[in-house]
Amino acid sequence: MASKPTYDCAYSILKHMDLKKRLGLKAKSPVFRQLESTIPLEIDVLDFSGTQVLVNEVEYSIGIVQKWPTDKIPDWAKLDRLAGPIQEDIDEYGRPLMPGDINLTGRGRIPVESPSEQIKDLPVNLDNLNAEIEEIKKSIQENKKKLADLRLRWGTYPFTLKELNEFKNRQGHVYFHKAEEPFLRDERRRGIYREYPRHRFQERQNYQSRRFSRGREEGSSCEALEKIENKQDAEICQKELDLEIFESQKEIHRLIHIRDNTLPEFRVQLVIKEPSGEEQIKYAKYNRKLLEYHKGLIDFMFGNRRSSIKVKKLIVSHENFIRAPIGLKLKVQGLKIISRKDHFPRLEGVLNRLRPIFDESSIPLKSIEFESRRIEDFHHEMIMSAKEVIIRWKHNPLTMINVDLPHQRVIAEVYYLEPEHYIDFVQRLKDAGRPIGTHHSFIINDGPPNEIFKAFQNNVIREGEKFVVIPFNEKANLKVSLDSRNQISFEVIGLFG
């Protein structure tokens, strides 16, 4: 009898804890592990769309990092860490290979140009290798001298690692000769795909154009410092030199390992990041495939549960795997499917693959959000039965406005169309006898909807600064509203609403 109050107390405490704290206790105690799996789990937002998992804005990410003594991490390694851990399996030298793969290229990079590379089972030519290391050291000294000259002439200051990382991301990975491809590989293997602001890209293009027009060899880095014309160019050049120095130092580090027949040590890193930015970091030995660690994390969080998992909003991407535990069932209210590239697969296949992890009580969904350019996508039962659909339409806007959707609430992101098309849209709502509560909103991507709003200023029953109420039928009126600077909505309301 003495154990029952203790059990009830623990159950009550765990039930009201957030998932992060529950998992912390679960990891520490087999007793809590068994108890925690019996307690229903309620999640506001569960996001599987990236390489990380987000639960109520707490991010759980797994990747591979090189192990360093805490006080001896070089700046180039710190810069690498700012971009996040490696998101693919690597070989013993940090290249993207999976454990068990056979490396036929030797211990260094693919031996195309450098004679110092070791081919498998062949000895390293130490003289050539040391000569290459000295050559890189010499280039580092030359670039450091250029940096000093730049700062003296233009009064620039040393940039922080955060500033250099932002510059690297902003420029779309366009760097300089030998350093360019390694950076590209680093970002690709981390699964990072960014969109870059057009004006930033144009700044870079203008700068490169000025450099090349002054007779510099394409791909070279700041050779003629005296021809730099302004401080902005000087700062860009300085950042490029900083990054080139870091890449050279990284290359020396790799070559020294080859020369000395030593191996860097890599670990699996789990980062738990709060919305405030506070991080909790844990490490494990890297002796299995990375996907097994991903799978293990998801299994630990959501697997072997004897109670329901309720999710208000599930976010997925058609470009990703969900390492779902066997038998996972989610009671989902809202679903959002996102795309990070200009590629829109048929939603039928995506939804059919998701359906097995949805508890039967999830259908009909309260809300579903997706991108599409095909009307056929709307015919799937998970879309047609949803109470609300949010569509980012990527095709002819007239097609989207003309489609007859039975949903009570529709939000569509479209390109601009002339007001007469929206007048026709309202007439179709009338002809269909849409009931009170029907609500259609259009987010206009490329222009404010003011002209559309002005087209509904006749026969006004009631109006405000950003809405008008006009006749709809014998039993209802229509409220037309400017919800924001680029959104207009049409809502069927009661006669006295």
TrEMBL record:
InterPro entries: DUF3557 (IPR021942)
Coiled coil stretches, renumbered: 119-153
Alphabetized UniProt keyword annotations: Coiled coil
Superkingdom as given in the UniProt entry: Eukaryota
PANTHER family xref list: F-BOX C PROTEIN-RELATED, F-BOX C PROTEIN-RELATED-RELATED
Protein name: Piwi domain-containing protein
Origin organism lineage: Eukaryota, Metazoa, Ecdysozoa, Nematoda, Chromadorea
